[in-house]
Amino acid sequence: MADPTAVPTAGRPPFWRRLGIGARITSIFVLGALALSFSMGGLSYFTTRHFLVAERVSAAQHQAFANATLLRSTLSTINKQSANPSNLLASLDAGSNSHSALIYNGKPYSSSLSLSASSIPIGLRDAVLGGSAATQTYREGAQSLPQIAVGVPIPSVHAAYFEVFSLSDLDHTLRVLGLALIAAGIVTTLLGAALGRFASDRSLRPLAGVSRAAVAIAGGQLDTRLKSDPADSDLVGLTTSFNAMVDELQVRIEREARFNSDVSHELRSPLTTLSASLEVLEADHDALPPRGQSALQLLGEDLRRFQRMVGDLLEMSRADAGSVDVSLQEVNVCELVQRAVDAGMRSLGEEAARPRVVLGEGVRSLRVDVDKRRFERVMANLLENAANYGGGATVVSVTALAAGHGGVGVVDDAAGNGDGTAAGADHAGPGLGEVEIGVEDDGPGIDPLERSKVFERFFRGPVSGRRGTGTGSGLGLALVAEHVSLMHGRVRVEDAPSGGARIVIAIPVATTDDASDGTDESNASDTSGAPDAPDAPDAPDAPVGSDAPDGSEW
User: Fold this and answer.
1) pTM of the full predicted structure?
2) Which domains does the chain have, with CATH numbers?
């Protein structure tokens, strides 16, 4: 029975395929350098060893045969009773790195106590006693010392001569040579790894340029192109095809942007006519029967929604075409948020509940560079989104973040994050940190898998199949992301402490007010594009420049 906990491996690419191109190129160089160095090292070692050992064996054989000839002459000329083979052997060994043994008339003799006839390999001894000269290399003793034994039969005097030569010096030389070749192989492998890394970097450098160009194009810089190098014929095809693709992409995007803009412009004229006609009908609203009044009300709501959507499409088409006009002004963030909330609440109507505006510590003196008209539109869209999907905004918070604080920027979920961040520019203030403005609602919240999608155009979540008032067009948060990005800010979605959704805007701090209360009289009366309304806020508990301590609620 199969183990239910076993992890299936079918379809999983092999380890080699899971490595990056650079790692694969480097690995090929490493393996090539390793194989080459150790094959050449092995060939050098065994060739050297063969010639050195063969030379030593030849020298030993010459010396052994010369000594055997001398020994035969000496033994044949002296009396057997007066002969002393041990002294003869000692004289032969004088000045050489060898020891001799002799079997004379059936008796063994040796020139050293460390050597005896019995210590000579049996196979060699039997071959020599049988009348054949022989040579054998072997290791002897607990230290396994290498030796060469040469046996020469001397039948004329009924003797067999053996001479044993030590190969300790040659063994040491070969050991040192082997270690040197291994070290050279390791160094060669490391050099191969370095060369492979260098080669992979050089080979992938054009791909890095393609990657940077693709990122720039994805960020809206459609005029980005790859530089063609005629000297590199291998990359001409890649550069030409990439630039041709981007040219075609740019033409299509500009064509679609012009089409959207033209359609939106063409729709404004009939919408204006319809709006004027609707106003005429609404003037006689009371004279209509109940069914006519209901139909007129539905027509008015859908027409205003359609007008809003056409306006949003025009704004987005201008952003896509790069023809937006951004007018950044330095304003006090508390006054900015207060006036934007006031304007947003007026657009929602009197029946909408006003959210609490909560100031964090140290925010009253902070100033930001924003386009006030766009910021008010951002807040109006956020408040309207909370009213449509979250039962209305409950809290608008303003929090200061110190410089270097890791904020979450706008990330496309397709790029692999999926943590609820949305798109926006990644700019930072001049070492003064950021201000975060959060709009919380009391609704069911936003699914983490949909938190990046809410900033896509025409995304309306679970209510995408419904039409009518209270559900929006799906362009509000997309416009929020566009406007915030133009003001060098970021926007993201997170969970509110109450359980609903919290949409956070992060804007870099420009400067701080010198005045301790953080009030700028020049900006206190400047609504900069807000709808006409009485100067006083709807229901503030304290004026913007009051002496209420930080962390208080308006």
Assistant:
1) 0.48
2) 22-172 (3.30.450), 233-318 (1.10.287.130), 327-524 (3.30.565.10)
